[in-house]
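Is this the right way to post structure tokens for a design question? Let me know if I should format differently. Anyway, here goes:
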């Protein structure tokens, strides 16, 4: 089966050591499969399993003259064996080994990313619970709209990353395939039983149809999902950056003891991590475009995709792993300022209740058009002249809405009565450990 790696070992997945280790395992498994079909003596396979080795430096030396990585690899392995070395790479083409090993690496990487998403989801869920009733101003077009809660923001992000985790699981299925079907995928020199045996032992499924390579739409799906995950990370980071503006300052990314914000201005507390995350998301989008361009190859294959993948596959998985780790830390240690939130709510002087007033006037028998124009008139007066929205309404609509009715309308508790229901629908319980 494919060896699992921990988060700290993401880079190790893309090391030469891991790649050659997978290549060697595929070669040995193929020999075992041939032996089961009676083509290789069992004792020879036992020697290969026991003695086959590779050396990264020696492979590099051989590749300098062969200018072919798989040929250099097989010759290096042959040097560790006796006459049984003739069975290494028996019936195979290079990409039977390379692409099947690449699928193993991608599965290893995706499993680490899934762990990272699980960690982020746990933090988002906890914060949604903690701040479920923390009032803050909701904004549309950057302008005060209606009051919401910080917990609802976290719940929104929680649900989005749940979707991303499901997409990643689907992408894992797309890339968890192998192929050992020969130079053009026709099994001309190797029977399907070899492919089935090797893939089963690696935890992969055989590709139903292949050419010399696995088809690159599979890899494009994964890179597209990674770009989507990065886009969601950017979405959260951008919101934190906007809420950290000096004029708003409702939340701040963590600023640790000894940290410096500027070489010239000692007062600065800049959202540098969130800015970094927004920038890195651009790289993931570019890499997904490159993966899409790898889908179209000449005939049964060309090599134009190979050089691209040597960059975009390691870089994308490593980057997303890093970004998930950074965002988890930022969300976990986020600085939250409820007093600033309350002060910012007060800046609109009650205008966020305009929708509730509109409905109350309609309930009193006004047409929607009459009610809208009346409420808007009071609102525009407050926008232009200052003052308080409720006081303006008392002068304009006092004959229609009583003081008691206005008290009921200007009530944040009623406006947010459905918050707990929304969080429950999002899969977030009533308590920190729910």
């Amino acid at each position: 089966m494919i060896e699992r790696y921990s988060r700290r070992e993401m880079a190790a997945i893309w090391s030469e050591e891991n790649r050659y280790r997978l290549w060697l395992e595929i070669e040995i498994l193929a020999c075992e499969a041939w032996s089961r079909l009676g083509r290789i003596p069992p004792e020879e396979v036992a020697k290969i399993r026991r003695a086959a080795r590779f050396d990264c430096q020696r492979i590099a030396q051989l590749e300098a003259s062969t200018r072919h990585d798989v040929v250099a690899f097989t010759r290096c392995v042959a040097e560790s064996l006796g006459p049984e070395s003739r069975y290494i790479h028996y019936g195979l083409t290079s990409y039977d080994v390379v692409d099947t090993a690449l699928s193993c690496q991608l599965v290893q990487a995706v499993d680490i990313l899934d762990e990272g998403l699980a960690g982020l989801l746990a933090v988002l869920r906890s914060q949604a619970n903690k701040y479920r009733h923390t009032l803050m101003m909701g904004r549309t077009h950057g302008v005060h709209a209606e009051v919401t809660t910080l917990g609802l923001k976290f719940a929104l992000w929680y649900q989005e990353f749940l979707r991303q985790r499901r997409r990643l699981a689907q992408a894992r299925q797309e890339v968890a395939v192998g192929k050992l079907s020969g130079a053009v995928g026709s099994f001309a020199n190797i029977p399907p039983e070899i492919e089935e045996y090797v893939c089963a032992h690696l935890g992969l499924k055989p590709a139903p149809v292949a050419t010399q390579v696995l088809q690159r739409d599979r890899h494009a799906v994964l890179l597209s999902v990674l770009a989507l995950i990065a886009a969601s990370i950017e979405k959260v980071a951008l919101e934190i950056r906007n809420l950290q503006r000096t004029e708003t300052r409702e939340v701040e990314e963590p600023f640790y003891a000894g940290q410096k914000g500027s070489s010239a201005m000692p007062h600065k507390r800049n959202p540098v991590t969130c800015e970094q995350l927004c920038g890195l998301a651009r790289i993931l989008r570019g890499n997904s475009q490159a993966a899409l361009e790898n889908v179209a190859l000449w005939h049964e294959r060309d090599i134009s995709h190979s050089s691209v993948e040597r960059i975009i596959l390691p870089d994308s998985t490593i980057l997303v792993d890093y970004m998930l780790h950074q965002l988890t830390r930022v969300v976990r240690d986020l600085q939250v300022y409820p007093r600033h939130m309350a002060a910012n709510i007060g800046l609109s002087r009650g205008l966020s209740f305009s929708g509730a007033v509109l409905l109350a006037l309609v309930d009193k028998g006004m047409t929607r058009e009459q009610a809208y124009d009346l409420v808007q008139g009071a609102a525009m007066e407050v926008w232009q002249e200052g003052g308080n929205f409720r006081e303006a309404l008392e002068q304009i609509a006092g004959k229609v809405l009583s003081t008691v009715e206005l008290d009921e309308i200007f009530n944040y508790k009623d406006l947010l009565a459905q918050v707990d229901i929304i969080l429950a629908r999002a899969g977030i319980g009533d308590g920190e450990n729910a």
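Format looks fine. Someone answered above. Worth noting: The chain is about 65% helix and 5% strand. Residues 7-90 form a domain with the Fumarase C; Chain B, domain 1 fold (CATH 1.10.275.10).
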